Amino acid sequence: MDDAFTLLRRAVDLLPEDAVAESGRTVGDVREDIGRQEWEMVLGVLMEIGDVHPVSLDFWGLLAEAARQMMLDRSRRWCQWRGWEVEHGTVRATLSLTDAEEGRRRTAFSGDGRLRPMWDIGNHTADGERGLSIARLWVEYAETLGPGETADVRLAPLRPEQWRDLKCGDVITMHEARPVAGTATVIEVLPPRA
């Protein structure tokens, strides 16, 4: 197994030279950071570039393993998440959690993809009952999400094929138990790229 630094160098080689992060950092900048051995910065900029530039499943795999070796657990999980999205597609939504007085949730949850709530996305069982689907949840730009709060989220369905009919503007509901835990409006549905 290659060390983290070799993995990062290999990931840079998978990018076109004109790839640029939203911050304006370029592949050339990343190569300079590698020369200075600024490994955590290299990982961060590569993740930024991958977030705005179409990259391969292999790219995210290299970054995930490098982050694991560097003991950057949240970065590792994000890279694994993004690799999953390349393979299965992306569902993004704006989620509003119910207030603590209305719902069962009393505390915030970690937004790093570990929560696996059930979702009513409009599917029904064979006998016509409401069918709930499971999807992991990643909160964008926040470490946690608590009762009464709203944030954009990314969903990783357990069975992605059940979610293919969603479109922008659809309203879906999140369930952790009864009653409804939150309501989300779909803002983006992207197909797999792998």
Keywords summarizing the entry:
194 residues, alpha+beta, six-stranded antiparallel beta barrel, two-stranded antiparallel sheet, 5 helices
Structural overview:
The protein has five helices and eight strands; from the N terminus they run αααααββββββββ. The protein has 194 residues and is of the alpha+beta class. Strands 1-6-4-3-7-8 form a six-stranded antiparallel barrel. A two-stranded antiparallel ribbon has the order 2-5.
Question: Secondary-structure blueprint of this entry?
Answer:
Layout (H helix, E strand, L loop, with lengths): L3 H10 L13 H9 L3 H14 L4 H13 L3 H16 L1 E8 L11 E2 L7 E7 L5 E10 L4 E2 L4 E8 L13 E5 L6 E9 L4
Antiparallel strand pairs: 1-6, 1-8, 2-5, 3-4, 3-7, 4-6, 7-8
Helix pairs in contact: 1-2, 1-3, 1-4, 2-3, 3-4, 4-5
Can you tell me the residue ranges where pLDDT is under 50 for at least 5 consecutive residues? none
Compressed to H and E, one letter per element, the order equals HHHHHEEEEEEEE
Radius of gyration equals 19 Å
Query: Which range best describes the helical content: under 10%, 10-25%, 25-40%, 40-55%, 55-70% or over 70%?
Result: 25-40%
Choose one word for the global shape: elongated
Instruction: Report how far apart the termini are.
Output: 24 Å
